[in-house]
Specification:
Layout (H helix, E strand, L loop, with lengths): L6 H9 L2 H4 L5 E3 L2 H8 L5 E5 L5 E7 L2 E5 L4 E4 L2 H11 L5 E5 L5 E10 L8 E7 L4 H9 L1 H18 L5 E9 L4 E9 L4 H9 L11 E3 L2 H11 L1 E6 L9 E7 L2 E6 L2 E5 L2 H11 L6 E5 L5 E2 L2 E12 L2 E12 L9 E5 L1 H7 L7 H20 L7 E8 L5 E7 L5 H4 L5 H12 L2
Antiparallel strand pairs: 1-6, 2-3, 2-6, 3-4, 4-5, 7-8, 7-9, 9-10, 11-16, 12-13, 12-16, 13-14, 14-15, 17-18, 18-19, 18-21, 19-20, 21-22
Length: about 425
């Protein structure tokens, strides 16, 4: 029987380990009784969805109780009205409740742990700052080894129960007294873009084909805009370009937010992030990625879709085409046109690039990436990659999809690739 992947069950798994217990922030299932008990301790409270990243803060001010969601603050006069009001604000059936971080907290960060296979050792793949602080950097360095040791033990415990999970993100904080606390753990399964990024990143040959990527926090949002001027936000779980947002720093006082065909201008990084958080982000973890300046056709960006299938135990490339984004769209999921690679290179005026060299590199990186993703997915039989291409013919791996849309191949004038994909899919069932 599989363990539940919800936050409360993950907490119970970690709490069962006596050596980890002292590092855990007390977490309970939300009920009227648990809410009342924590309120009696007169400290701020955070309520989290058992599944997903939704968070609601509860704090007391001027003898009133305030409920802060992503988009608003609701005020109630007493404890009795608080629970019923809170239930009206929630969107899911189950939530956890825990004390909110105190003012003594020096730093808080996401620690991403990864393992290559179910039998491999866990290692720290990255640290993501939540809030900028010079002192936080200093303290983090002092407690690095201790945090790493705690993170490895916590990941090992969770990994024993969730054998199909190879990437875990721990929300870890340290206070003025050097006390380390785990506030949360998030499992990133194989369908998570964050997990896939680390799967592919472990291959040195693929490093140069992967855009720099981090978990989205206010701090990484600021740093990436400072470093790249133009960035992309993507939900960790999602398909068909839903929820993808582009932000461009046009000047120090002008930030353009672009989603679909809609554009909004904000005067600062803080206001841009606040707008995105309140209006555009779903209740899901997000990544932030450097934006790659893609080759264009009539000012519309293009990218390449490559389909690979396993037939007779061997991976083969069975489909390849180029998607042209719809007018004013930032991504090609809303494609206005589908082309062969040769035709796309000609229309994009990439005439100095040898198409045979591009195809060789394209085939090679897709094959390497597929074999990596297939290592821990025994039943994987098809993968679709979205590959970006610049005006100079440089290639970038945006993501691999284990349930790729193959209907677009049927829209090509030549149906050969579509028929091949269908035939292999039907015979390998």
């Amino acid at each position: 029987m599989k363990s539940s992947r919800g936050k409360i069950n993950q907490y119970k798994i970690l709490f069962a380990d006596e050596k980890l217990r002292k590092y855990l922030v007390k977490t309970e299932l939300l009920s009227e009784q648990s809410l009342t008990t924590m309120l009696n301790e007169n400290e701020p409270i955070v309520v989290k969805s058992v599944y997903g990243s939704e968070e609601i803060s509860i704090f007391q001010k001027n003898n009133l109780y305030h409920i802060k969601t992503n988009s608003k603050i609701t005020t109630v006069i007493n404890k009795e009205a608080l629970y019923s009001t809170l239930k009206n604000e929630t969107t899911q059936q189950y939530y956890t409740i825990q004390k909110s971080p105190t003012t003594h907290q020096l730093f808080r960060q996401f620690v991403t742990m990864h393992r290559n296979t179910p039998s491999s050792e866990w290692y720290q793949a990255s640290q993501t700052k939540k809030i900028h602080s010079t002192l936080a950097n200093f303290v983090s360095a002092i407690f690095f080894k201790k945090i790493q040791k705690i993170a490895i033990r916590a990941s090992t415990k969770l990994g024993e129960s969730f054998t199909d999970c190879h990437t875990i993100v721990l929300d870890i904080a340290c206070d003025l007294y050097g006390d380390i606390r785990i506030f949360d753990s998030v499992l990133h399964l194989s369908n998570s873009k964050w997990s896939q990024y680390h799967e592919l990143r472990r291959n040195r040959e693929l490093h140069k084909y992967l855009p720099n990527t981090e978990l989205l926090t206010p701090e990484t949002f600021r740093l990436y805009l400072q470093r790249y001027k133009s960035i992309i936000l993507k939900p960790c779980i999602g398909q068909n370009g839903i929820g993808v947002i582009q932000i461009r720093r046009k000047s120090d006082a002008t930030y353009e937010i672009h989603m679909g065909i809609k554009k909004v201008i904000k005067p600062s990084v803080k206001k841009a992030f606040k707008y995105i958080k309140q209006n555009l982000l779903s209740e899901n973890e997000y990544i932030v990625q450097q934006r790659i300046a893609l080759a264009t056709i009539n000012k519309s960006p293009i990218d390449i879709r490559v389909v690979l299938q396993k037939t007779d135990g061997i991976w083969k490339i069975t489909g390849k085409l180029v998607k042209v984004a719809g007018e004013q769209f930032i991504i090609t999921n809303a494609a206005q046109k589908l082309l062969t690679l040769e035709k796309a290179l000609y229309d994009a005026k990439i005439t100095r690039v040898d198409i045979k060299k591009i195809e060789y590199r394209l085939n090679k990186i897709c094959m390497i990436a597929t074999e990596l993703l297939a290592e821990n997915n025994a039943g994987l039989k098809i993968v679709g990659f979205d590959i970006g291409m610049t005006k100079r013919g440089e290639l970038w791996i945006f993501e691999g999809n284990k349930v790729p849309d193959i209907k677009m191949f049927n829209d090509l004038e030549d149906k050969t690739m579509y028929k091949t994909i269908l035939n292999i899919r039907n015979t390998s069932k």
